[in-house]
Structure formats: C-alpha cells, structure tokens
Amino acid sequence: MSSIKAFRELQNEVTEWRRYLHENPELGYEEHNTARFVAEKLASFGINHIETGIAETGIVALIQGEGGDGPTIGLRADMDALPILENSNKPWSSTIPGKMHGCGHDGHTAMLLGAAKYLAKTRNFKGSVALIFQPAEEAGIGGHRMVQEGIMDRFSISKVYGMHCTPGMEIGKFGICPGLALASVDEFDIFVKGRGGHAAYPQRIIDPIVIAAQIIVGLQCVVSRNTDPLESLVVSVTQLRAGEGYNSIPEHAQISGTVRALSPTLRDFAQRQISESANGIARAFGGGIDFKYHRLEPVTVNHPEETSLAIKAARDIVGHDAVTDRLKPTMGAEDFAYMLEARPGAYIYIGNGSTADVHNPAFDFNDEAIPYGIGYWVKLVETSMLAA
C-alpha cells in the first residue's frame, strides 16, 4: 500500500476549489463559470493541450507522461449541479437559491483537478492522460453528447474511468461492482384521451381520470406478474396531471414515469408492455391513448480487465480490506454508461462518510475524501500505464 501523504499535501488547496464550486453551482449546459475555473486551473498546472466548448461546456485536457509512448487513459468528472434549494447550513453553501451541488460533482471536479496538478508535475507514466470534465450528467445527456462529438477518437482514448462519492461508505474506503453496475433509465408519457363534461352527468362523458387510475394500477403488474422475480425491473409512475375545476371532467389526463432495467431485453419488454397495457385499459373504458417513450442512459457495465486495474489502484492507496470488490448492482443510472459503451473502463465508488444522501438538500461532499480520490486517480494512471 502506498502512502497518501503526498496527496494529503494537496488537500487544503483542493478543498478551497471544491468549496468555491459548491458556492457557485451551475445546472447542465450552464457550467460556464465552472468550465472557466477548471480551464484556468489546468493551464496554471502547465498543461498546454486544453480543449473547451465540447458538448457546449465540457473540457478535455491532455497530459503527456515522461515514460515514453503508450495509450491514452481517460479520467472523467462531472461538473453540473441540481435544481434543489440547499439547507446544509455550511459556510460554503450555495449562493444561488434553488441550485446546489447535491450529488458531489463539485468534489468529483475538484479531485480530478487535484490529480491533474499532481500528474502534470510528476508525469510518472507512459502515454497520456485525458482529463474529461463533463457537463449535464444529471440530465443524462452530457456524456452521450461528448461521445457523439468524438472525444474518444479525437483524443485517442483507449480506456475510460469514472468515480462517484457514496454517503454511508466510510472515508478511505472504495467499492466497485464488476459487470452490470447500474440500470438503464427511460421516461414514458401516456396521454389519456376521454370525453369531458359536467361532473354531475358522468353517463355522458368518458372519464380520463378514471382511465388513468386504472392504467396506473395495471402498470403495477408489468413487473409483479410479467417478469421473472429474480430479474431487475422497476416501473415507477411519478406524475399524474388532469383537470382544473371541481365540477368538470377533463378531456385528457397525462401519466408520466420512469423505467429502470438491468438488461436490454427487459428494457424492450417494458416499453412494449406499458404501451399495450395502457392501450388495452383505455379502450375497455371507451377512451384511447397516445404513448411516448424516451430512451435515456443505457446499462452501466464495468469491464473485467479495467475493473481489476481499478481495484488494484484503490488497494494501492487504502489497502486490501478497504476496497469492496463485489458490490451489488443498483437501479440508479449514470450517463457515464455511454463512455463505457464507447471504450472499456470501470466506475468506482469512494466513501463520503456519514452524510446526508445524494440529491438531499442537506447533502455536502466530504472534503476528507479528497486525498483518497486524488490518490486513486494517480495510482490508476500509473498502474494502467505499467500494465500497458
């Protein structure tokens, strides 16, 4: 196990960067100040190859090692905040009402900047490191757009890695899930068509609210009675909109929700089954539907060789027992999945200690995790390039 003393020496400075970013959150594709801050720091480290404006506000910077020719490894951090009103009561709380770094992206960005400063100074590796600062992760589109704009080919990235803070996991610990790690996520809208009228005369109307209620109940069986209980699929209705008055039955109702799955087959099944179920129920009541299904992030899959390298790098920093290498998949989603579809790589979790959960108004990234995150990135680069 390598000492993290060198990375602790960066902690105070990187903490200042992290807290500045926390005070100044920006939503997806609005990260102009964040991108400017990142680019200025990278330039101050002596990094000459910095490209901005990728996927609007994204950045990719290259550091060339001094160990000779070799591949390029990509390290990714997300930069965007969430539309949440913060109540963490920290001195560095968000200065922008209704926006906060509620998922630790300020910490992710700061840790990668810390690793960039260290790697730009030491350059103890072969090949190159591509530092990927991604916008719009929370919208599920920033990673996809960076891939579509060709960053993997343009920067000759052969492998790519991501990291996310995890409340409830102790500081100084890491965890990773080999293979299937996170679910795909999709969104659906069901527009129920009825015939409106006076609430006093229900026999004259086709009530879209009643139809919507029956559809919602019916959707509960998509998982419970149509899929293998040992497979992972979640169908959640999250919105229901209908009507404006007390004495009028509306013409339309709208049901919206999400689908999360751990396999493409289940994803396809859910799309088909939701449409067929909703259409059948609506027709039985004399109504109809329009159905829209929006595919977002695919399943996040960690690749075997890269997962092994990630585990080794983490254990080089914190020791064998502080790295859990058999985490179970979760039904959360990550647009880093698009990068893992484009190139082999791995996505690891770093402990954030006993804090509020992510997407909670009281959440704050734990600055005590900073030296471990920096150390992981550095050891990952050095380990990967030795294995190249």
TrEMBL record:
Keywords: Hydrolase, Manganese, Metal-binding. GO terms for molecular function: metal ion binding; N-acetyldiaminopimelate deacetylase activity. The Mn(2+) ion enhances activity. InterPro entries: Amidohydrolase (IPR017439), Bact_exopeptidase_dim_dom (IPR036264), Peptidase_M20 (IPR002933), Peptidase_M20_dimer (IPR011650). Residues 187-276 form the Peptidase M20 dimerisation domain. GO terms for biological process: diaminopimelate biosynthetic process. This is Amidohydrolase. It comes from Mesorhizobium wenxiniae.
